Amino acid sequence: MRRVVIAISGASGSIFGIRALELLAPITDIETHLVLSGPAKTTIAVETQWAVNDVEALADHVHGIRDIAAPISSGSFRTAGMLVAPCSIKSLSAIANSFAADLISRAADVTLKERRPLVLMVRETPLHVGHLRLMQHAAETGAIIFPPVPAFYNNPRSLDEVVTHAAGRAIEHLGVDVEGLERWHGG
């Protein structure tokens, strides 16, 4: 059983983390571990039709943001990697600076120190030089910076297709194949 950690921070775009959970749910050899920040719960309510309890029900295991004793806070708890979707600048800053103040930043730090894939769907625009430096620093420590920039080569017909494609591509950086994901086949 492969374990995947999904964290949803309070940045706009909580649907990316929700969609990642939806895409992982039918994969029988994947066990999902979810962490929601407090602001993520607010963002989910504001931006989506989802109830927080329903989002949590998509995961196999849910861990509280302050539960520093959760299994995902230890390198001995093996995972395939971690996706932070969306990744707020606050979470990015904590991750880039190894400031493990909550379970999102602690689990991310563990993921990096164990040399496992950490995918950060950084969600902010425009970016100032401080944001860019944080992304560079996180990338230098091993994180994959994956802003949810839409792809248009697949001719998306809806926002739902854009979200699915971005979340699916991010998940694939954890070594998980996503069925039905539109691929580039040349011009």
Description:
It is a single chain. A six-stranded parallel beta sheet has the order 3-2-1-4-5-6, with helices on both faces. The chain has helices at about 15-25, 40-45, 50-55, 90-95, 105-115, 130-140, 160-170; strands at about 1-10, 30-35, 60-65, 80-85, 120, 145. It has a single domain (about 1-170), classed as Flavin prenyltransferase-like (Rossmann fold, 3-Layer(aba) Sandwich), CATH 3.40.50.1950. The termini are far apart. The model has no long low-confidence stretch (mean pLDDT about 95). Helix 1 (about 15-25) crosses helix 7 (about 160-170) and helix 4 packs across helix 5 (about 105-115). Strand 5 (about 120), helix 6 (about 130-140) and strand 6 form a beta-alpha-beta unit. The chain is an alpha/beta fold.
Features:
7 helices, 6-stranded parallel beta sheet, alpha/beta, 187 residues, 6 strands, Rossmann fold, globular, 17% strand
Mean pLDDT: 97
What amount of the residues lies in strands? 15-25%
Spatial extent as radius of gyration: 15 Å
Q: What is the helix fraction of residues, given as a range? A: 25-40%
SSE run: EHEHHEEHHEHEH
What is the CATH domain class? Answer: Alpha Beta
What is the CATH topology descriptor? Rossmann fold
How many domains? 1
Termini separation (Å)?
38 Å
Q: Helix count?
A: 7
What's the name of the CATH homologous superfamily? Flavin prenyltransferase-like
Largest sheet: 6 strands, parallel
Based on secondary structure, the structural category is alpha/beta
DSSP summary, beta strand count: 6
Shape: globular
Strand order of the largest sheet: 3-2-1-4-5-6
Unreliable spans are none
Q: Using the 3D structure, state the CATH architecture.
A: 3-Layer(aba) Sandwich
